Amino acid sequence: MSWPLFARTLAWQRTRWIIVSLALFGWGILIPVFYSAFSDVIRDLANSGAFPEELLSFGSGSLFSLPGAVTLGTQHPLAIAMLAVFAVGATSTAIAGERQRGTLEVLLARPLSRTSVYVSITLGLLLVIGVVLAALIAGFVTGAALQGVLDELPVEHLPMVFLNGFLLWGGIATFGLAASVTFDRAGPAIGLTLAYLILNYFFEILGSLWQEAEWTQEYSLFHHFNSTEILAGSVEPVDLLICGLAFVIPIIYALVVFPRRDLAAPA
Amino acid sequence: MEPTTTRSVISTRGLTKHYGTIPALSDLTLDVRQGEVFGFLGPNGAGKSTMIRTLLGFLHPTAGSATVLGMDMVGDSVEIRRLTGYLPGGIALYDSMTGAQVLDYLARLQGRTAYRRDELVERLQMPQADLRRRVRDYSRGMRQKIGVIQALQHDPELAILDEPTEGLDPLMQQAFYGILADLRAEGRTIFFSSHILSEVERVCDRVAIIRHGNLMAVHEVRELLARRRRKVSIQWRGAAPDATTIPGLADVVVDGDRLFATLHGDVSEFVRAVASPSLRDLTIEPASLEEAFLEYYAEDAVAPAGPSTAAEDEELA
Predict the structure, then answer these.
(1) A101 interfaces chain B, CB cutoff of 8 Å
(2) Are residues B23 and B79 in the same domain?
(3) pTM
(4) What is the total count of domains within chain B?
(5) Domain-by-domain residue ranges, chain A?
(6) Strand order in the sheet with B214-220
(7) Relative to the CA of A27, which of A204, B25, B131, B216 has its CA 20 to 30 Å away?
(8) Are B219 and B234 members of one domain?
């Protein structure tokens, strides 16, 4: 572990970190506002039978309850895009980008093992992801308090929501870092990580909208982060296990592959 | 000036690196002694950077072994890099940082105090105002100066410099040569890769010539220059005498009262032989390392220098 490199990783993301944290906090505040404003309308629509319930939900989330709205808030494309700034953008360019620019050479000329480089960058980026995720959850709590519906949000289960969310987004981040140590250029690493994210998201949304394809949700990491169930006090250990494996396997891959790679002179 | 010692700072034995089936380094056996400036010569693609990157642990050798500062190249790579300064060819820096921030950051990563920074900044004429500017606004020469400073600021025992004067103007090249001379005088070892023969000739004690990943020769620079053929031009009053009577001449071309030839061996014997009242003009071009270098690259079928050449080189020393 190299503290200067860890600190540099945090500093490198500083501006984006602040902007995305504030944006997610704001988004988190808006979710209870939407819930308060539209939950009755949505419920009436569902009861009228004019719309199938699946179309009034999104992924595993809905506006029928505050925990459902929280899930909606975490699975909405806006939240996905903001979290992907780090889980896809920052991770996949972290090492491949340095390699492409030629600065990895200057870095590795220092007395740092490649394992230490990887661990320092990974811990830095995971910390950033943890903070922006915490900002989102803090936004939910703040919004619920402002709307006077805090009693509908079982805050004692929020640490578990954070843990499950961190394992999900951390898993996408470690996948991005694994891609980053594999390629010499940032483009392929970004492309592969983005494809991984989109595929997971597509499976989750497809299964939620189309009953025939419900089975695809099982293959989506997003399906294994269900805030509604966690906030209801029912944590599925298998969800944590699957997200945990998705988190750990790319780390093991990177720790094996990166130190063994030949780093020829940049073109 | 401290003399060089026979202790090897870099020692490779049969070092080989293949990219797939393509050989980049073949069975390279070489010793670089403590306190010397060692030139590593070869055109682009000859294997210079591959050798450096293998020594620093960026590449894994296909076969062979090496020690750097007495430590195993593979097992002690981190410790080797702690004691080494490296300037990559065409160095890339962090564009969003200022020059001073880059130097501070790299010094922190090095884990050693940047004892030499102030001196280097002064000698390479890098004003504080420039150090406060972002690297993205730097010219090529300024980036190279930062590259030199970051490689040497922690006073490394061994400096590995890949094309170090690339982008430096002639004035800064002189300043850089002065820095190298001082480092050498302090007993530091410098491994210097270049294809600029004049600078290798000027600053290096010994030179290795590499071609297609094969070590062609290792020589003392002065020995190499002494062996070189010089171009001579002689003009007589009247007809030129029989060239076969003049020792060391080859490739003789006579044009009236002028004789053009190449000269091998001892200059004094040659001068004694041509000295006569009928001699009107004599020109002996200085021996150039370039001639020596081109000689190694002119022939396609030259056998590479194996360990025996390295041993032979020890005799030269």
Answers:
(1) yes
(2) yes
(3) 0.84
(4) 2
(5) 3-260
(6) B84-87, B158-162, B189-194, B37-41, B206-211, B214-220
(7) A204
(8) no
B93 and A103: CB-CB below 8 Å?
yes
Give Cβ neighbours of residue B70 (< 8 Å, ≥ 6 apart). Answer: none
Q: What is the pLDDT of residue B301?
A: 42
Question: CB-based contact (8 Å) between A115 and chain B?
Answer: no
**A109–B86 C-beta distance less than 8 A:** yes
Lookup: tokens for B172: 């800064």
Residue B115 belongs to some domain of the structure: no
Total residues found in chain A within this entry? 267
Verify whether the Cβ–Cβ distance B105 to A108 is below 8 Å. Answer: no
Residue B253: is it exposed, middle or buried by C-beta count within 10 angstroms (0-12/13-18/19+)? Answer: exposed
Q: Are residues B44 and B64 in the same domain?
A: yes
Residues B220 and B299 grouped into a single domain: yes
Q: Do B267 and B303 have their domain in common?
A: no
**Residues A69-106: tens digit of each pLDDT:** 888 888 888 999 999 999 999 999 999 999 999 899 99
* B165/chain A closest Cα distance in angstroms: 17
Q: Is residue B103 part of a domain?
A: no
Q: Is residue B142 part of a domain?
A: no
CB-CB contact of B48 with B42 (8 Å): yes
Containing H/E element for B207? strand B206-211
Domain around B47:
8-83+157-225+291-316
Q: What is the mean pLDDT of each run of 10 residues along chain B (317 residues)?
A: 68 91 90 92 84 92 93 92 92 91 94 91 91 92 94 94 88 92 92 81 87 86 75 82 79 84 81 84 75 62 44 35
Q: What is the pLDDT of residue B294?
A: 66
Both B237 and B174 in one domain: the answer is no
The CA distance from A40 to the nearest CA of chain B, in Å, is 51
Residues B303 and B271 in one domain: no
| CA–CA dist B288, B316 (Å, integer) | 19
Contact status, residue A196 vs residue A175, Cβ threshold 8 Å:
yes
Q: Which residue of A has its CA nearest to B97?
A: A12
